[in-house]
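Sequence design from tokenized structure. All designs in this work follow the same two-part layout: the structure record, then the generated sequence. An example of the structure record is given first.
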């Protein structure tokens, strides 16, 4: 239990540092900003209380807001994502799963396609709220949509890479 909590804490800190030190300075094609810190929600087991998702989302978002000068935008986006996570997880959980036995969302527990759908929906919620609040308008809908779509796809690609590397490491270790 303690080792799982420590691993999740290390991931939280690592994703935060990766975002604020490196990824926040990337704007691929001037539009796509990778936001793989949403992966922190994929590290929590399915029996996690709903309010914990929101608290973790707020904490991560607040720290990102502090380091990136986006007051409240990251916090609001990740709180919304935290609110949506349990419902999206139920939507994309393995068929026939009754949630009696908790599992951590991953490729091993869900397989690639359902996992990627789950991750895509999480990242899409985060990016939609984030860029909507950042722009605070839909007047430039084309730019908003392009930024939202490219950032979502790039973030999902980062998370899929993390998951593939974790799977490779776990299969090598036994």
């Amino acid at each position: 239990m303690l080792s799982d909590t420590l691993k999740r804490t290390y991931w939280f800190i690592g994703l935060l540092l990766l975002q604020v030190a490196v990824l926040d300075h990337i704007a691929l094609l001037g539009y796509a900003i990778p936001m793989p810190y949403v992966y922190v929600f994929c590290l929590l087991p399915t029996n996690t209380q709903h309010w914990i998702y929101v608290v973790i989302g707020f904490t991560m978002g607040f720290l990102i807001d502090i380091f990136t000068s986006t007051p409240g935008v990251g916090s609001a986006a990740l709180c919304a994502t935290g609110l949506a996570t349990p419902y999206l997880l139920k939507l994309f959980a393995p068929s026939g799963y009754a949630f009696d036995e908790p599992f951590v969302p991953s490729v091993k527990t869900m397989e690639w396609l359902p996992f990627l759908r789950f991750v895509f929906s999480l990242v899409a919620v985060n990016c939609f709220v984030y860029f909507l609040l950042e722009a605070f308008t839909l007047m430039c809908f084309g730019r908003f949509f392009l930024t939202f779509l490219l950032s979502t796809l790039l973030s999902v690609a980062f998370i899929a890479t993390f998951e593939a590397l974790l799977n490779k490491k776990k299969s090598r270790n036994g």
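The first helix runs from residue 2 to 21. We note this feature because it recurs in several other targets discussed in the main text.
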